[in-house]
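[#protein-structures] MJ: dropping 2-hydroxyacid dehydrogenase here for a structure pass
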Amino acid sequence: MEILAFGVQSDEKPLMEKAFAGHHEVRCLDVFLNEDTAPIAAGYEIISTSVNATLNNRVLQTLAAGGTHLIAQRSTGFNNIDLEVAERLGLTVARVSYYSPYAVAEFAWTLATAVNRRIVRASNRTRDFDFRLDGLMGRDLRGRTVGVLGTGKIGEAFTRIAHGFGMKLLGWDIVENPACVELGMKYVDKERLFTEADLISLHVPLLPATEHIVGSAALRTMKDDAILVNSSRGGLIDTKALVSELREGRFTGVGLDVYEAEAGLFFLDKSLDVVEDDTLARLVTFPNVLVTSHQAYYTVDAVSQIIETTVANVLDYQAGRRSENVLVPSAPKT
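AK: finished. C-alpha cells for 2-hydroxyacid dehydrogenase:
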C-alpha cells in the first residue's frame, strides 16, 4: 500500500522513507492539505498530515468521498481538525500524543535568551562590522521570576532549565506537576503569574478555554520589562492586543515561534509576495520581537520520534488496534 503524506519538509523526507521502509511505500508531498489540495488524496486509504493542514468540513468531505479512511497527523496538536465531522464521516484520526519535550523547551529558552541579550540585533550589526554595544544591554536571569503556563512534559522540561538558571519558579495549570513542585515551583493563579513574572512562557494546548489566554487584560498586568515567549500555539495570544502594547514601548522582548494566523504562511516561502496580514507585518518590525516559523519541534530527535509514532499509528489501524494516539476510532464494521 502507498501512503500519501502532505506537508513533508525536505529534511523530513528521508526520515519518512526510512521509517516506512519494509511496511509501505510513502509518497511525500511538500504541499499542505487544504481545500485546494484535498483532491490529490483520491484513492489513498491512508494519508498523513502536518500541523498546518486544514481539515475542515469541506476537506474531510473530499477525503471521505475519495476513499480515505485514516488521517495520521504528525503532531500533538489537533485544533486544525473538525473531529465531529470526521467521526460522522467514519474517518479514523490519529495523532502523535508524545514526542521529545526537550526540543520545544530548549527552543523556548533559545527565544527567551535571544531577545533578552539582543542576539539578532547584535548579529546584524557585526555583519556590517558595527561592533558597538549601544542598545544591546540585557539582564541576568538568575534570581528573577519565571512564570510557566502549562506544566506538562514540555513545561516541566522548561522549568528544569529555569531551575538551572537559578530563577524563582511560578506555575499555573489545572493539575500540579509534582516534579515541578519538587524543583521549588509555586503554583498561583494566572493573574498573579502575569503580574509577578519577569519571563512568561506558554506551554498549554489551544482549546476554547485557553484561546487568547494572553489577551489585553493579561498583557496590561505584565511588567513593562517582561519577556513573553510562545512556542505552543499562536491562538494563545491575542496578537492585535500584543501589537498595541508593543506600540507603547512595553516589554523587554517577545519571542514567538507560532502565530494565530500562521496557516498559509508558515513553512512557505513568501519572500517575493505581498504579505496581506497587517498584524504580522507590524509585529516583525518591532526591534524587541523575534518571530520564527514554528520550528521549536524541528530536531532530528523529535521529528524521528514523530514519524516513528505515525508509522505505528498506521500499523495499529491496519491491525485493528487502538492506542492513546487515536482521536477518532475506526467505525464499527457491520
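MJ: nice. The longest strand covers residues 145-149.
AK: one more thing. The chain has a mean pLDDT of 95.
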